[in-house]
Amino acid sequence: MKRGPKPEDTRLWSRVAATVHPLPGRETPPADVELLRAAAPVDQPLPIRRPKPKPPRTGPLSDIEPNRKRAITREHLEARIDLHGMTQDRARAALEAFVRRAWDEGYRSALVITGKGLRGDGVLRRHAPEWLAASSLQEVVAGISTAHDRHGGEGALYVALKRKPRP
């Protein structure tokens, strides 16, 4: 069972179609009379939908897109930091400085080695995603994901970095 377009969609399409001009040497296709009848009330303006501004990030980071994660898994990651043996305060400061420096140098991904902890619930492993989601790194970090086994598995994180804006 096929339904026809909604009147609002038809009205919008007729406005768009009215602005299109054929290529040189081509004729304008004949208008569909039924569509024109359905789109009759064109004189009322269409509502303008503006994108909502993004609120500052407060929750956890999103996971890295599958294709990008696959590419990161295959590459040799030159930007890497090992947080083993650091206190929480020192590890957070080192992580933030490292991520900013990697982004400044143009890297698109980085490897953060946190370790698993003694029973698989290490403090750095638990807190690193929170630190990376901080508002101070919002313009730098695109997403995070658990690393592949050859890069440290559950004791490491891939950090996807955003592109630097062009000057």
| Dominant shape | elongated
Q: Number of DSSP strands?
A: 4
Radius of gyration from the alpha-carbon trace, in angstroms: 26 Å
Proportion of β residues? 5-15%
Measured between the Cα atoms of the first and last residue, the distance is: 53 Å
- Runs with pLDDT <50, length 5+? none
Query: What structural class is derived from the secondary structure elements?
Result: alpha+beta
Q: What about the largest sheet?
A: 4 strands, mixed
What level of helicity do the residues show? 25-40%
Q: What pattern of helices and strands is seen along the backbone? A: HHHEHEHEE
Count helical runs.
5
Count of individual domains: 2
Q: Which second-level CATH architecture of the largest domain applies?
A: 2-Layer Sandwich
Strand order of the largest sheet: 1-2-4-3
**What would CATH call the class of the largest domain?**
Alpha Beta
What is shown here, in short?
By secondary structure, the chain is α+β, with helices and mostly antiparallel strands. It has helices at 7-18, 33-38, 66-74, 88-104, 123-132, and strands at residues 80-82, 109-113, 141-146, 156-161. The chain is elongated and about 75 Å long.
Fill in the keyword field for this structure:
2 domains, 167 residues, four-stranded mixed sheet, Ribosomal Protein S8, Chain: A, domain 1, alpha+beta
